[in-house]
Amino acid sequence: MTKLSPPPQYGCVSEPDRPLAAGPGHQLDTFDAIYEHDLDYVWRTLGRFGVLPADLEDAAHEVFVILHRRLAELDPERPVRPWLFGVARRVASDMRAKRREVPISNEAVVHHDPKLAERDLVWRALDALDDDRRTIVILHDLEGHTGAEIAEMLEIPVNTVHSRLRLGRQDFIATVSKLRGEP
Rounded to an integer, what distance in angstroms lies between the CA atom of residue 64 and that of residue 172? Predict the structure, then answer.
């Protein structure tokens, strides 16, 4: 596997003209094809799940190592992206758990670029969310999936999706306000 580098769309929302995943009959069936098609998606997903920018390359590498090991087990009639999303979610969760074990300096990172500061604020607010709520907010608000699609992907009731989305948004807004020092 070659060295990963940040995709050009680093931190951006999915392109609207690009399908979210290959569908039935159009499955990407080789490791190289999936890697080329979904590296930027995996990179964004990991960042949205709170993987620090310095750790994104290692985390993306881990996702694709798991894909390489398990590619033969994937159902060729199902899209790859929901599976990659699940793997990225677990890899990010593991990395966040390891980060909690290591003492972190209280020094704040100061960004001179307002866009970078806002992106970091969003990532920190997402990182503060409960895992279940974070997953729903990311899938719905950032990736553009419908409630029904999310329910099918996660194998949970649609009403649970909508409840977690509502609560996740409330928590997100409260966390952003707190991080900005607002009352």
Answer: 29
CA distances, 119 to each of 12, 50, 51, 53 (Å): 10, 11, 13, 11
- CATH hierarchy code of domain 21-104: 1.10.1740.10
Let me know how long the chain is.
183
In the three-class reduction of DSSP (H, G, I as helix; E, B as strand; rest coil), residue 74 is classed as coil
Could you name the CATH architecture of 111-183?
Orthogonal Bundle (1.10)
Q: Which tens digits make up the pLDDT trace of 69-110?
A: 999 888 888 888 999 999 999 999 888 877 765 444 334 445
Specify burial of residue 133 (Cβ count, 10 A radius: 0-12, 13-18, 19+). Answer: buried
